[in-house]
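Continuing from the previous page of notes. For each protein in this section, the sequence appears first, followed by its structure tokens. Read the first protein now.
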Amino acid sequence: MSKSTALGLCLLAATSACLADGNGPLLLQEPSVSATQLVFAFAGDLWIAPRTGGEAKRLTTGTGVESGPSFSPDGKWVAFTGQYDGNTDVFVVSAEGGVPKRLTYHPSADVAAGWTPDGKKVLFSSNRNSYSRFAELYLADLNGGLEEKLPLPAGYDGSFSADGKHLAYVPMGRAFSAWKRYR
């Protein structure tokens, strides 16, 4: 089964679980798929559901907005961008649920983008050290410590190869998101 087909089936299952109140379609966003589960953003929180279908359960319940979930390679952790206490930072939470762990503390916005193949570090973008408004890519270790800047001139999103030796990245941010045929 192709990745897009599996993702579509999981979103359909999660949607049907969330439609219990009968209000119609929901705007489920930013899905990430592991071997057994699907996580997505809805109503400012993260939700998780089995890939085989079933009821979606709320993974985060913080007072801020959580977005951009991404499963670790082993599927045990979910990295995400959290907006708590007036700041945007990178967090991780167990796929089983629990209290999110904050990985970044910089006053600039840090946005989660993915994982290293070994699952020990989270890739994120930030304009914390740029001389203008562009973002750069960094790595945050799950065990804490200073973030590591990647040796690239700019970067907004990226993904490591399976062996971790190469990185495909987006050097320029989107000027705007186009929405067509919406109601």
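Done with the first. The second protein uses the same format. Note its length before scrolling.
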Amino acid sequence: MKNIIITGASGNLGEVVVAAFKSADYFLNLVIRQAYEDTERIRAWQADLTDAKSVAKLVEDITHADPQIDAVIHLVGGYAPGKLDHTGLSELDQMIDINFKSAFILFQEILPFLKKQGEGKFICIGAQAAGMPNLARNNVAYAFSKQLLYQLVEIINAAGYAEKISAHILLPTTLDTDLNRKHMPNADFSQWTTLSEISETLKKIVDGQELRSILSFK
């Protein structure tokens, strides 16, 4: 049974991902905001993922309870619109904190454990639009933060910590959620990435059926 950490487990994407992994043979460590009842194959944790001390305590507790961590699926993230001339430092800091710093801290804290066991996958969610200036110009802080996340994945893989330690980033189009459909009712939903596509891809990465580090969707 593979042992997985999933952050952002209570979000729109997180709920679908958790449901997909619950239906198969995995043990899940869910980093989640609200109270959650532990089961035989699920354990819930709470932490401030933008705070290094909080994340260090989280990783210490999880790795003390579990001798093996096969994958970390980092789903924590946020979105904010705003063109360059309307993006203040506070908005930039907020997006970098939640989209990049949370991943940076979490990987730094879990890395010694992964190096000790000699394997493990770190998976996060980017955005195709962040690399498209014509689209990124409308959400500058968000795009910057997701580009940093992309570079983090590239650097992790270039570092060569161990042959079986890898980082992966999924680059969806607009996620097909009820909220996004409400905000963009005239959009072509057929071009959006479904949450089930994300969850199935995550399972393939965890199970070793998908080896690419950068995965773009339609």
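What the second structure shows: Helices lie at 12-22, 52-65, 89-117, 133-136, 140-159, 178-183, 195-206. The CA atoms of residues 51 and 105 lie 8 Å apart. We return to this in next week's lecture.
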